[in-house]
Write a structure and sequence with these properties.
eleven-stranded antiparallel sheet; single chain; 11 strands; alpha+beta; flat
Amino acid sequence: MATEHTEIERKYDVEETFVLPDLSGVPGVASVGAPVVHELAATYFDTADLRLAKAKITLRRRTGGTDEGWHLKLPAAAGARRELQSPLGRAVKAPPRAVLAPVLGVVRRAPAAQVATLHTRRTLVTLLAEDGRVLAEVADDQVTGTALPAAAGEAAVVTTWREVEVELVDGDEELLGAVGAELVVSGARPSASAAKLTRVLADRLAGPPPATVQDEADDEPDEDDTEDDVVPEPVVEEPLPEGKKARAKEIARRAKAAEDAAAAVKAEKKAAKKAEKAAAAEAAERARLAAIPKAGEVVVAALAEQLTALQRADLMVRTDVPDGVHQVRVASRRLRSVLAAYRPVLDRTRTDAVRDELQWLGQELSGTRDAEVSLEHLRELVAAQPVEFVLGPVAARLQQAELQGETAGTGHAVAALSTPRYLTLLDTLHALVAQPPLAERAAEPAADVVADVLRHTVKRLRKLVDTAEDAEFAEPEGAGSEAVESPYELALHEVRKAGKRVRYTAEVAAPVLDGTKKNGAVMGVVDAMKQLQDVLGDRQDTVVTRELCRTLGLAAFGAGDNAWTFGRLHALEEARAMQAERDFWALWPSLGPVLNGVAGER
């Protein structure tokens, strides 16, 4: 069973001659404990392509010291790192399945093997408060790190260094800063490496160096050679002929030849200068065009960003961080929207299937998230009701349903994220980013393409709003059937989804079209679509809350409780839905000018 530890520390590089200063004078520190020496040995595990290290995650098996065991360090957030610790067990060559479970979405199906070893001679001192509490630990580490061969025939690379770590125990950030200041004054430098492993694997993380290009040997002088660098061939002149007339004629001929040669050289230099100027202009134009972002680069960068967000949210779900399921769904929706909207840039024969799989993922997790939000809303709604309107154990029933939903929902979400289908989806997304299936418009300037795509998504939204307006007073299909949504309700649902696509499309386009403007036209569209989502999102939430009111009311009635309050809650949610619809139609005209800014006037 893993235990969790929150690590708040600072690292400092120091020279071999560094002397740890007396820290007893730091404000809040009453005394410094006696030094204790630990011999620590750690083996680090990762995939062959270092997926964990690239995600700022470290996995090690450590012996020695007070915290022997398997340590899984997760990415830092707000200056702190979460560390999951598990007992050593018998596994040595590979991490146990339970240890790898939280990072399954990162390693996927690639095996995790030994990539490095570290031996650390640690001299540890504690900073104590007046009541004996340990405020912080200061570790002076002499480290020998070995990067194990990445492939057969390669050699191990050994790195040695010395560093000082300051980790909070019962102290605060102010103490951490004060201790760090004392260390810096004494010659320490804030470390450039957040983790020891990053330093050891620096070469592999940086990738292979660029290939050296050899110039072909030739007999032509280099462009940078000056006239003085080029040795001219000696010129041997014929002797002048005998006779006064013949001599004068030959001298005149030679003068004319020299004059012609000088003119030819001058013309040649002029032509060369003109050619050089033309070549420079052509090179400058090529550089200018190369500096203009291409549509393919922008869209693939957006996909990579959302894939990183999906991986981060996946980790949240597996380590039971609140809001993780919601963040997985958001990243999935954004990925789907980018793939759908930017089909002129990415070959849809390759991406449509990925969109289908992302839709499956969202549907798998939708029940968990929707129920969580709805139950929380209903509990708040009940708490706001007059006491005389709450008949029976309504709050208790909602709380019980919420607790049951949390337990079942988390289990279902983790199960869904552990299926071969989901892991295959992750592999496909990574391959899509690494080798994107670029379509014809991918090579065009990004500004032209994203502007066209954004205009298209806005026009699509407007068309769906027109459809909803026409359907508002249409006769519902299947009247009398409780389970069937009317064409109007379905149309509003499509408007909400289209608004999300406009927003996500605009978020990709904004850096290109708005540049550095924080309040540009495209960001105005993003803000407008947030307003649309808020209003229609409230309406959509009531679809789930009303169904919960109905099922919980039936359960209460079946148990012999008074179900009247659940009927009241259902009516209040119906009223909320109607108000949300009115709010939308009141909001929509004000969004027109904002949308016109990127799509043109209607």
